[in-house]
Design goal:
Blueprint (H helix, E strand, L loop, with lengths): L1 H27 L23 E4 L2 E4 L23 E3 L3 E2 L3 E2 L2 E4 L10 E2 L4 E11 L2 E9 L4 E11 L1 H7 L13 E2 L4 E2 L4 E6 L6 E8 L10 H6 L8 E2 L7 H8 L17
Antiparallel strand pairs: 1-2, 3-6, 4-5, 6-14, 7-13, 8-9, 8-11, 8-12, 9-10, 10-13, 10-14, 14-15
Length: 267
């Protein structure tokens, strides 16, 4: 009887241990969606992380990139109903800005949700203080060669905040950016919940087509004056929204008091 009891206990122990091992292994195979991974699964079917780098004055991919979605179209990164004016890309404000953005002069707190206008992976990031308030900037790259920049984000999603905490400690007005872990970002994903600084609520948005230089750069004089890594590749993102969103955004006033709606990239 004792032998039978011991045998039964032994079998039960093996079954329990086996079950624990099985379920433990099952959990390890699941990668939580909010954890960093290094491979982007894009909507165009690429599973290889294609990184674009500035080399000898031009951006080059580390391997053969996938084709970009056609037609190229971005989702609005913010609810157009809360936008009061538009910062156009390709202006002096007061130094040259290849990126644009949005202002929210009716906001009392800067609590403005910001969403990813296009899928990709985080390429670079930075954090700094402006008047003592934290500001974040991120560059997000689609493997096909489309990169966008979002700046003056103040409160990040938990996913981006965890990434930002790996950056150097912020310093006043030191807005340098750094290569970070290339975590994936989905189109429409919430990236931030608050923007700008107290009493000045806005954020930057710039888009760059790294596959070819823009029309403005065809002028040698312009190119000599704007020869940094980004300006010759900046595009007018207002032209790459849905027709309805594009019309609504273009109907808004230009935010800059000097340049208005003038732009090196927008007709």
């Amino acid at each position: 009887m004792k032998k039978i009891l011991l045998l039964a206990l032994g079998i039960g122990f093996v079954v329990i241990v086996g079950a624990l091992i099985f379920f433990s292994l099952g959990r390890e195979e699941v990668v939580p969606t909010d954890q960093p991974v290094t491979v982007v699964q894009s909507s165009v079917g690429s599973t290889e992380l294609v990184v674009w780098e500035p080399i000898n004055g031009a951006w080059k991919p580390t391997s053969t990139p996938p084709a970009c979605p056609e037609p190229l179209q971005f989702q609005m990164p913010v609810d157009v109903d809360v936008v009061t004016s538009v910062l156009y890309p390709g202006q002096f404000r007061p130094d040259y800005k290849p990126h644009g953005g949005f202002r929210f002069d009716h906001s009392e707190s800067g609590e403005i949700p910001v969403y990813a206008p296009f899928e990709g992976y985080v390429l670079k990031g930075g954090r700094y203080f402006a008047s003592g308030e934290i500001q974040y900037v991120f560059f997000i790259m689609h493997p096909c060669g489309i990169m966008y920049r979002l700046g003056h984000l103040k409160e990040l999603s938990p996913k981006l905040l965890a990434l930002a905490e790996t950056l150097p400690e912020p310093k006043e007005l030191d807005s340098r950016d750094y290569i970070v872990e290339h975590i994936p970002i989905k189109q429409g994903e919430l990236l931030a919940t608050e923007v700008g600084v107290t009493g000045n609520y806005f954020f930057d948005w710039g888009v760059y087509d790294l596959r070819k230089k823009n029309k403005a750069s065809e002028d040698p004089a312009w190119l000599a004056e704007h020869s940094n890594d980004q300006a010759p590749y900046a595009i007018c993102w207002l032209d790459f929204l849905s027709p309805e969103a594009s019309a609504r955004v273009k109907a808004l006033p230009g935010a800059d008091g000097t340049s208005g709606t003038e732009s090196d990239y927008c007709d």
